[in-house]
Amino acid sequence: MKIKINRIKSAIGMAVLSLLLPLAALYPAHSAQASPIVPQGYEEAARSEHLILYYNRNTGAIAVEDKRTGYVWKSVADEDVYDLDQANEVLKTYLTSILAVTYVDISSNKESNLNKIYSADKTNIIQVAKKANRVTVSIEFKTVGISAALEFSLVNDTLQIRIPEERIKQTQNMGIVSLELMPFFGAAGEQADGYMFYPDGSGALTRYDRKAHRPSTGNALKLHIYSKEEVKVNDPASMGTADAYDAMLPVFGVKNGNNAVLFAGTDGEEDAWINVNPDGY
Question: What pTM did the predictor assign?
Answer without folding.
Answer: 0.81
